[in-house]
User: What shape does this take?
Amino acid sequence: MSKQSLRLACPLLCLLALVARGGAASHPAGKPNRLSRETSPYLLLHAHNPVDWYPWGSEALERARREKKLIFLSIGYSSCHWCHVMERESFMDPEVAAYLNEHFVCIKVDREERPDLDEIYMTSLQYYHRLVGSSQSGGWPLTVLLTPDVKPFFGATYLPPRNSEDQVGLLTILKQVSEIWRDEPQKLQSGADQLTDIVRRALRERALAGGSLPDVSLADQIETELASEFDPEFGGFGYAEFDVQRPKFPDHSNLAFLLDRLERAREAGTSEEKLLLLLDTTLTAMATGGIRDHLGGGFHRYSTDRFWRIPHFEKMLYDNGQLASIYAQAFALTGNELYRTVVTELLAMVERDFLSPEGAFYAALDAESEGREGGYHAWKKADLEAALSAEEFAAFAPVYGLTRSPNFEDDLYVLLLAQSPAEVASQLGIDEAELQSRLTTAREKLLALRHERPQPLTDTKILTDWNGLMIAGFADAGRVLDRDEYLATAKRAAEFVLAKLRGDDGRLAHVYAGGSAKAGAYLDDYTNLVAGLIALHRATGDARWLDEADALTRKQIELFWDTETGGFYFTSGDHEDLLARSKRGVDSATPAGNGVAALNLIALAQLRDQPDYLDYARKTIAAFGGLAERAPSAVTTLARARLELAHEPDEKIEE
Assistant: This one.
């Protein structure tokens, strides 16, 4: 983006940025609005708001165009704490709701149901911040104001309902914008046109990242970048030494890349101690920190600090699916018993808290209960002491950090492994087996006690792409740990998805909720499910799963392939016409669909003897050659595919 285009877009946008810094009848509270007809648990949470919500669709969009009304677009998800806060504060407020209903067409979107909309309007927010000189980043709830032709001109995340000492409130912003739209609509339209052009260009450039097939030295460049971003004391990547409250994420794709490099080094008989240090330090720190649920198993979304101590408490299926595979493979590589424990406790949590009666996996567990984030998971020391025997507490307290000062708000503790059981056993003068017995009993008691608390909301929708990741997690764990029951769980989930989320025409749906499948699938639905089926084949040897993976891959090529520059679009060719059509190569919380697609194509070419898949894989990787050159560590999954392609012995296409 040129400096000139920034200046052109800035006058109106800067006016709105200063606002962001600086009586009609409401929909009756309690009376169901249009969201009551939806199946998304997140949308249903808003079904009794006094805001006259619409789901995204033709009814809302046609009304906005017909009545020339601005659109108030709110995007969130069920396990988002600040989404709940904004709903309670603003969307249940009669005055805010009345103003929204009179002056806007209000649309509520579940970002997990519509990741295409979320990508477009989150990109809009990010560029809006750049235009107005804000250092803020994106996040949820995502609040975007649109013209009747769905072009964005203002964006924010959480907003309070009214002005506070340090933030202008939602109601003030809505009134300011409405006055401009009434008196000088061309100003808003002009700013929206300019911002939309920038967003379209940005998403188009991602889709045309292009270039030639990157050299295999791409992997070496990524190793160098990861080493430079590595936290040598506490593991993880992208930390700031003097900003200990900067969030730290699991970075699954980085960990999968390190595992891939280490496995290749082992096969080649070479030493990669530096890579092992990066992997082991990070996995151990995560496993011992508060980001892991030491009573219930599994991992929360991310750490709010450098030390992995205090998490953001939501639990997501996609995190735990990827981490099940990563820790299982790390156990196979290192023999570290801590990693085996992490896997078995994680999968026990998934079977207890995420498994639907039909055998598929739910999407998420909320970050809050009774309006408080972390309230379900944190403990008062006195409550722990009262729940355990003296011997149990004497063992439990030093191991899980209770001999230190409280580490969470209101004198509460988030449990973490503060001392090794061997050290504590020595201090208590007992053998480690006895200590472990006391700890096991203590954890069981506390988990049962925790289950008596008000439960966090479970988002019960079933997403095809996230189920693919969890199918792979159970399959990989079953293969590595020789656990047939894990393979049975993976098979049952795969059978559900193939039966309930695939139509007679072979096309997948994205989501299953309320007893039916809905929403056309995205690229990641195909790629992650295919990867899960390939993992299931590798674990069981059953050719059925390869047959299913092959059929889905053929359908994926038919629907998503870019015939001009190669690679796969995120949406199918007959998808709803939106502001832009993106093509993703950058890994995020889940691996990039194009990277997974390339890995799948190479695997199927090997396992099914279909050399045409190698051509598709090569063109997919090459489509992001320019991106790989500019930002190597952003494309670790594509880099793994590039290495795998280089080791394909029968490849006939010139390097």
